[in-house]
Queue: 2 jobs
Job 1
Amino acid sequence: MCQSRAVTETVLVLGGGGREHAIVRALARSRPAPRVVCAPGNAGMARDAETRAVDAVDAVAVVALARELDAALVVVGPEAPLVAGVADALREAGFATLGPGAGAARLEGSKAFAKDVMAAAGVPTAASRTVTSVADGLAAVDAFGLPVAVKADGLAAGKGVVVAHSRDEAEAALRASIEDRVFGEAGASVVVEEGLTGREVSLLALCSGRVVARFPAARDYKPVGDGNTGPNTGGMGSVSPVPDIPDALADELVDRVHRPVLAELARRGMDFRGVLYAGLMMTPDGARVIEFNVRFGDPETQVLLPRLEQDPLTLMRDAAEGRLADGPVRVNDGAAVAVVMAAHNYPGTPRTGDAIAGLDDAAAAGADVYHAGTRAADDGSIVTAGGRVLAVSARGDSIPDARSRAYAAARLIHFDGAHMRDDIAEGLDT
């Protein structure tokens, strides 16, 4: 039975990035607003909630913290704790938890597993081969032709994918992953996938068993440079809505992708309670799944949750406890655009420790400034602490309006080495 909301409840949010900061800000809009505790959190989240220095991947420590807090809900933000089974440990301890168990989290933790599930469920995706040697990888490249996608099988923080346009580039990516182990054990196996062309779209849905409550479509901009040039990143910006993915088409995509996958997981004994994120390529031959994530996307969350018109805590808790209503979530009619500000040398080895100025100015301009890679310095200032430092998100009546507001606010923030794409949501006129 649902606990009464008359008494202030505590929600534990695991993680310390921009996605988790967006979740914290959304929960603050619930009525009554819950007490929110973040583990480990970051410098920006510490302004909006309590933070605890607990490793989100340490299941024993997380369960102990949830018990200490008597948490009414635990929201698992990042993928690593989910793959490590933290959600399983929390549920076994009796806590309502938003996030799938380790079995279903393999949809993100292993691209080969995701391909197997899609094949069994009849979900459209690119042809692929899973290889453990460079020679086998090159044979797959020759079979598929160019371009091809070379993907580390395991978790690689959004950096394990290379779209190769030459055989030499594909060979270099295979050697880096399999032989040089630049992604550690995550790259011991590699999925070589036929190249797809078209527009990418992110379609996220809260799921509970076979029930699906989808968000409107969003678009993520992964390459570091304007015009989708340069290496892939965890995401340099996002926009919602997406004019070429209207709600009717989004519903069709959920029926073709999310529901069959949930049914296949259920057939395998996995009760999925969390967020299922489908990264899709809209090819000339129809939609194809590029990847699955099993949590809120980053930076898609920074444009989707600000548009939410339902009570965020109720929605997340209903998904965790099996009371979720099937159908689209309610959002406002406007738009949101998020621009990521990255540190010097990202997506390589980013420089950290650079002082950040202008945060309050950007907030005063009406933007939501979500912290991802930040920390508090000894003197109380906020400094960079990661590759993607901030996501500056703004809402507007239209995409151009939201885009203008987001960039105007982002340009008020300064730190040495800061860089951002200048073309997020460019050309979208809804």
Job 2
Amino acid sequence: MAKSILVISHAHPDFSKGGGEVAAYNAYLGFKEMFPSADVRFLAAVNYGVMPGKIVNYKDSEYLLGACVEDNRFFRNLNADQIRQSLEELVEDFKPEVVNFHHYYNIGIDAIAILRRFLPQSKFILTLHEFLAICMNDGQMIKRNSKSLCSNSNEFLCGKCFPEQDLSFFAKRKNSLLSAFSLFDKFISPSEFLRQRYIDWGIPEKSICVIENGQLVENIFDEEVINLDVFKNFDFDVKVSQLKRPPNIFGYFGQINPYKGLDVVLMALQQLIRSGVPDLVLEVNGANLDNQRGEFKDKIQALANPLLEAGVLRWNGPYERNELSVRMQRIDWVLMPSVWWENSPMIIQESFLHGKPVICSNIGGMKEKVIHAKTGIHVSAGSVTEWAEILVKASQSREAHEYLVKNLPAPSSCIDMARAYYENV
């Protein structure tokens, strides 16, 4: 039985809404529940409010690290001396037996080496959430010029995306990251798709296993958060909603950026209203549009405005974790229109947890996690016309909707996730 565990994340879900930080925090909660007498702590990087490299106490057993990565090509620290001192102070009396990194972005690979020197006997785990080590284009494995999907990486292919770099640069980058990765005892991938990509890249096959991201199952209907009067006619033991209306309300959840494909769905809706206002609604529950570059931000706003006027779009804005259940209950389908591979999007597991089938792009981790015609529907990635057709068909198919709902799997819990992590170290 573990006596001490440290979970490290590139961000804290209190300040950032990405799936990686939610997965990391859920692992932390799972370890705490699994080992109630153990000293389990959570360290998350933040981009403001804390001096780079400094660590401050945030709340009980949770700490914030001032983001300190100077070079996002190699993920090196701005001030290695400061982060060395901060990490030494954190683990001086703590001495975690297990250290679970959920990222190195915002943290730096220097921190991995520093902690390994301080904790030579500890078990080190790295949970991989995307392709940042493999791809320098924001870890998306999308070609910079054509915006097409990239299936491989080597110095020649990467050199076409980054012609300003000498080809030797990419070999140097890969060797640097593989050297840092060699300090880990085990790698966790939430999907087989991501696992195979990293095996092809250079991680030994025997060192990396697939463990699904866990969910906060017990908190779906927290009475302190949700007014249960809203659900007085809802049978919590039966997932099938048996709608008395068509299943025509769709939900988009998560980040809004060029890779997530919201613009594809909005263009599909515009295509539909040009041929007559359809009897369907899209609810957008999205964050970080304000942080996007002007061109993409302007595009989304230009697409959204006529849809809002036509009444087929509701723009709900970002949400806190305790608001997800209420927003999920308002919709019939969850849309995942990403144009990049994805890994194991948290929203897919959250959708299944709330009894909502998923309509997603037919690539990468999405294709793996959603079984076509059983737990959801696959759509050709980036195809505006196909998305328009599927939205109409899904909105009119009550029988198909209920069939899919009946087949939804029970997602892993936080404790399932923590147990699998611990057993695989």
